Amino acid sequence: MKTVLRDLRDFFVSLKLTVALLVLGMVLVFAATLDQTNLGIWGIQQKWFRTFVVFQGVGGVGVPIFPGGYLIGGLLLVNLLGAHFARFKLTWRKSGIFLTHAGLILLLVGELLSGLWQEDYHMRLSEGDTKNYAESFRDNELALTDTTDANFDAIVAIPEALLARHAEVQHPKLPFRVVTKAYYPNSLLQMRAAGGPPSLATTGLGLNVVAAPQPMTYKQDETNTPTAYVELVGPDGPAGTFLVSTGLVGPQRFDYAGRSWKITLRAKRTYQPFSLTLLKFNHDNYAGTDIPKNFSSRLRLTTPDGRDDREVLIYMNNPLRYAGLTFYQAGFENNDRTTILQVVRNPSWMLPYVACSLMALGLLGQFGIHLVGFVQKRRVKSKLSVPAVA
Amino acid sequence: MKSIFPALAALATLVAVAVSLRPAHNPGDYDVVGFGRLPTLVNGRLKPLDTVARTTLLVTQARQRVTLPDGSAISPDEWLLDVLFRPALANSYQTFEIVHPDVLTLFGLTPGDGAGKKRFSFDQLVKGLPELERQSKLADAVDAPVRTPFQRAVLQLRDNIILFQRLQDSLVPPGVDDYLEQVVALDKTLPAAMSALTAQRAGQPHDGAATKRLLELSQSFAAMDTLGYLLPIPPEAGMTVPSAWKSAGTSLQESLTTGRINPAALTFAAAGLAWRNHQPDAFNASVHAYRARLEAGIPALLQKCDVEARFNSSEPFYTSSMIYVLAFVLAVVSWLKWPDSLGRAAFWLVGIAWVLATAGIAARMWLEGRPPVTNLYSSALFVGWGAVALCLVLEYFYRNAIATVAAGLVGFGTLLIAHHLALGGDTMEMMRAVLDSNFWLATHVVTVTIGYSATFLAGFLALIYVVRGVFTRSLDRPTADALTRMTYGVVCFATLFSFVGTVLGGIWADQSWGRFWGWDPKENGALIIVLWNSIILHARWGGLVKARGLAMLAIFGNVVTAWSWFGVNMLGVGLHSYGFMESAFWWLIAFVATQLAAIAIAALPTTNWRSFRPTAA
User: What's this model's pTM, rounded to 2 decimal places?
Assistant: First the structure.
């Protein structure tokens, strides 16, 4: 039994396993890169890296084809930590390797954490607009807003994932339950032909618009248009079934139990404790060409408590970091009058910097020690060989 | 013999280099060289007309020399002058390369109709232009990545013809015979014509012919402004601001309202007229007078243009690549005979070629005001430069001509790649906004590129190990050990640089795109190189491979690096795919195949290696 355990330990700390895992990692990265032409950059991360096992759809069935990023990275972590406890003795000559590996561990952990924690949003601002929220690229939410009070909106937002599961949602702030009758992750909205099949919707725009389900798209320049039919049912009877879709512009209004409501399926919002106003967006090209030279957004940053009220400039390679969020110049539209900022929240953003400093230091030290040793050896040798030639 | 041969070889090479660096001379009475040095704004950069001529020719016919139908050759500057001012003559020059047989069929041509069986003149193509236009429309409708080679060839030719025509329409509008005479005379006729126009507008009697001529000229100017390619007219004050430079059409159009004609516009017209009428003295006088005026306004820019034109004509990278070939041959022969003198000569030659390439890269850096690597072209130059520099260091220590052979191979190979990449157009292009950061270009890009250099070098050293070991008896024990140590050392170096470079890239990405790592193809390519190099090192440390295994792994490093360098650009996805290219795809496949073959050969049992076979007693 002891030998089995020792063999097992030897296997997990062996250099052979390291090499095997590195090779697997390389193949994984290569295959995932090729797969980007099919799935896009977001799709491959979910399929190849942020998973323990990579599944390939064969005839509609997911077949495991390769260990995923979590598995390879995790084993590499075990292997590294194990090797350090079982085999390594910290000596001056090995200090470089030690540092390098410590950095690597930190890098792997950092990548795992940013995979788990990092949130990406975008913020569209036209000149003069002020916003205190950013919108998600991929996630949507069903927003129900009680607009009865003219000074105050009460919003209940239901994540799209709950609609996808057809979950029945009940919320203390809502006088009705939300029941998903149908949900399409991607769809095409069309005007309903007169005399066509009856719509699932019983009120609102859904009476005139129908959604045709579409296959999901992963292309970088296309977005999915999810649509759901949701029924609102309360003690005072049903408020009707609405068609909600990100393809519809603006919310639909209705009244229920003496209060006014808005319902809409929109990009998931995250609110910030401050607001940004776009003062001016600039887009310069090189003289006589369409080659962009610079994009920049001049914004006013204000907090409700009045502590911050200043102008900031965001341009390529110069993001704004504020309150745990980072704002990048990502794009523009609307004839250079609307700026698109990418907003990232990543609490672990410092980890790669630390990890990389450690590793670079370690590698430099390690190879430096070797190089000095090599040159010294050559010197001694050539000195010895001089009399032999003469 | 032994002692002087290396010195003689080095001296002869230096003389050859010095000859290649001489300033260009005028082929006849015209100061065409002086004309070529005049600045113009094209694609956002102020550059000499000489550069415009050469890059246009490289794009349309893949070489800079223009051969006339009678077999004589003219310089790029003379060609440009003919394109600008003698359009009919330029239309007869065979400067469009067409290799796709189906494209030739569109024009009813066969390879036999072309110069060198592949170059055709505009006159030969003019009849088929409507059909080309129709085919281009069909091809345009297809997504770029899935176009057939025929469709790509059609679009390429269409773009080349448009480029040629736009160049022709830059200073002379199409279809106006006495245009240059009219512009030259405009200085005198303009005031009268303008007062005639004022009179006409006021409904008073006026010179009707003069106003009509003015109207026609104005239409010509408008046409030149829409069609023309060059923006060669600096403002009279504030010439240093690129965005103030104008097309000849716009500038002259403005003269019709201000009454003042920009001297530059007049100069180009006068020089053009002199060129057309075969008056060298008048031509030279206007070029020199114009230059004197520029000298007062933009001396620094003019100096840059002079250096760039000189750089263009001396072609340092071409000379350098030839010396690399020579050094390679000498070094290989040195393994068989006269190892000492040939080896040393080869070493000196590599040194000279490297210094020349260094000077070329430095000149480009000075001209652009940028770190060495800014695009795929300059990365090829720099990969070669870095690898050869490492070779020089290795050869200094080992003196066995191995690193010299590798230097010759890598040096020539990368310059050849660079030459083909230059066929895409001006290699000193302006940097897109996201790349516009000298700090990151100098750190991340340079380090990553040195990582490429070193990984390639390790692969080529390993190739030498395999080829010498399997096919010759020359790989004795000390040589084999030395090669293994060299390969190992270079792999260490490669690991360090590719890792640090990749990390710096991550930091740049975090600064500009909001994530340290995004699994973008180019990032993955860099990561794969780091992974592969660390695989080699760990396999070696773990005793999984010895000398032969190390060689095989290092050769595969060539495949990995080639894929990261070019393969990912061919995927055409991701934020980094600004260096998209297609034609190199088959070359990449061929390169990978040869490397895999070398690995297979290395896998032969050592009893089949000639060097390791026990000598028949």
Answer: 0.84
